[in-house]
Amino acid sequence: MSLVPLQETVMAKYPHLLAPLVPTASRPSQVVEMLSADIRAGIYQPKDRLPTEQELIARFAVSRTVIREALASLKAEGLIVTRQGSGAFVAENPFGPPFRITPDEMHSIPQMLYLMQLRLAVEVEAAGIAAENRTARTLERMGNCLVRIDDDLRTGTSVGQGDYEFHLSVAAATGNPYFERFIRFLRSTLRPGREINPALKDPVVWLDYFSQIQKQHRQIHAAIESQDPDGARDAARAHLEGALNEYRKMADYPPFSGQPQTSS
């Protein structure tokens, strides 16, 4: 029997899983979408200077942190370039790069599965390279992220930002700026755990789940600190496959083992 593509299988057996997830676009994502629309409409032409941070803060009524995160996402997508002391400018060919993943695409479990498989392909190797290239400074950055997540777990605060920053710190430890740009590029596609899995709205379930996630983060950090590339890859793979399998369980799909499946 030949294999049926994942999305077709889920659609046939569990059509309710293809219903759109509740849209809760973050403020940075909203700013990114509006500025992207301005660039696409020609309001800002290639090489044009964007408004200053202060002007963008006033326009969107958001914090400086939100504006800076939005600009970082636009830069990661190749829509703008930044020049120290001069500000942000529209890229010469802002819509030249053909590859883009938007938050609108992450509307169902199959799309989230595809994204996790992409992250596996990139972030596992990034962890191995980070173990080879890490410095005292990048280790400290990772450690600070772990402390932040610990604090969030103690107070019951969302760990989403801390989790993102940890993965970003691993990418930065590779010494290869493209890994870090890739994680920044994906930032707007990440969805809050409670939004995807309603069971996480239970505080006890939430704490247990993210405590396990944090344990996996520490295993990745320990392997990188020990300069153990294979151990770092194994820890990152276990961490990401665990998240991938959570999505597969929601779709009642067989666990992902990283091994090719054969037809019978």
TrEMBL record:
Domain (HTH gntR-type): residue spans on this chain: 25-93
Name of the protein this chain belongs to: FadR family transcriptional regulator
GO terms (molecular function) for this protein are: DNA binding; DNA-binding transcription factor activity
Note the SUPFAM superfamilies from the entry.
GntR ligand-binding domain-like, Winged helix' DNA-binding domain
* Pfam families assigned: FCD, GntR
Q: Which UniProt keywords apply?
A: DNA-binding, Transcription, Transcription regulation
The answer, when asked if Transmembrane helix is one of the entry's keywords, is no
| InterPro entries hit by this protein | GntR_C, TF_FadR/GntR_C, Tscrpt_reg_HTH_GntR, WH-like_DNA-bd_sf, WH_DNA-bd_sf
Q: Which CDD domains match?
A: WHTH_GntR
PROSITE patterns per UniProt: HTH_GNTR (PS50949)
